[in-house]
Amino acid sequence: MSLPFILLLVGILLVVGGIIWLRLHAFLALTLAALAVGLLTPVSLLERHYLEEKGKTAEEAGELAEKNVGSRVAEGFGRTSAKIGILIAMAAIIGNCLMESGGALRIVRSFLNLMGEKRAPEAMAGSSFLLGIPVFFDTLFYLMIPLARALAVQTKKNYVLYVLAIVAGGAMTHSLVPPTPGPLVVAGELGVDLGRMIVGGLLVGLVGMSGAFAYARWFNARHPIEMRSEQNERANRFAKLAETPDEDLPGLLASLAPILIPVLLIAGKSVLVQLVPPGEENGNLLFDCLMVLGDKNLALTLGALLALRQLMRSKVIAKPDLGQTVKDSLQSAGVIILITGMGGAFGGILQQTSLGLEVSAFASRQELGPIAILILAYFTTSIIRIAQGSATVAMVTSIGIVGGLMSSGLGIHPVYLALIIGCGAKPIPWMNDSGFWVVGKLSGFTEGETFKTFSMVIALQGICGGIAVLALAYFAPDFLF
Fold this sequence. Notes:
Layout: H1 3-21, H2 26-40, H3 43-53, H4 58-65, H5 69-101, H6 103-115, H7 120-131, H8 137-155, H9 159-174, H10 181-190, H11 194-222, H12 233-241, H13 252-275, H14 285-293, H15 296-312, H16 322-351, H17 355-365, H18 370-388, H19 391-402, H20 414-424, H21 434-443, H22 447-475
Helix pairs in contact: 1-2, 2-5, 2-16, 3-4, 5-10, 5-15, 5-16, 6-7, 6-13, 7-8, 7-9, 8-9, 8-12, 8-21, 9-11, 9-22, 10-19, 10-20, 11-13, 11-20, 11-22, 13-14, 13-15, 16-19, 18-19, 18-20, 18-22, 19-20, 20-22, 21-22
């Protein structure tokens, strides 16, 4: 085994051991792993990385290789945080404002009213799929589980299906559609345009959600589970919110605007760049406006301002405290930014071991084609997910391992590598995953029931989504636009 692979093994063992056995926070485990791998990496491997992967001169490579490990880790953390910091912060503000103002509840109820009681499970899945873009999954589940319980009481059946519909929709966008942290980092590291990542994530996400939802229907019909009470303070707060009368909730368009406007601006910019021929963009007002407003940081900031405006006008809260709402949002976002930023730094340190060159050489020796490379990336991410529990950590670690394949020419659009990593981060959540316990405890499921329901739904999301990515890569290797 070559030294880069040994260093990779050391790094993964430190991350997994720190999180699982020592119960360290993910940020600290990733920091220690990055520093350890950086200290163990010899100058010769660093110079090789800068010469062959970065295209530096021998003099430049020598200077960069002499940097101390602390500086290299800090620079990697800074680069990743610069790419995702504002986006995650603004997405957290949007999500929190939608929850507090009743906008998220309005979206869910509108789906339910549109589709009717018979299609209530589909309505739950569709609304959670949409809300999963700006709202972190744990928070989304806290909001929607009271609705699942109310529907089960009303219909006297399908409790498991209502619960799993939330999971099938809300958990899928977490790993595929920016501005959630994992897709942001992966897209940034691979140089994938954010608009393409959003469109691809939505398409693949719909396939993954459909496969998971089909399993949810099958399981509900054959293994019904009775509804049991399982409450805590946060769950009780959202249960009271779920009882808000319709007349006190904001309008549907106002509720959708903070989500859809940033997505449309970012995706619209990507599409317009492809449609407008080079040289004809000058003097095109629509092009100029979208180039400015379609910037990912500006688009998400606009979404956050719309969400705050909605909270100010909300009837759900008598006197909304905007300062406190933003503070609460940034507290939750700060932890995510720290973990994601350090995950990016760890991935960068792994790349500096010349691991990418070794992986590329392995792929060349085995004569792996684009589809085989995607499968390799999928299983690499899945193994890391199973080992340590976090989908986000799995994604940012995996990109440090397989990202080097881009330098050798993938043969397909890099968005497919980003999407397959997102799908690979789904299988198989178990007791080392926080979502496992959130869903199990709030639903009243036992550990065994949670594994048969939540874990299997998430795994099927990844399997079905992965198959969709492979099919798209085979039939449309240059992507759709």
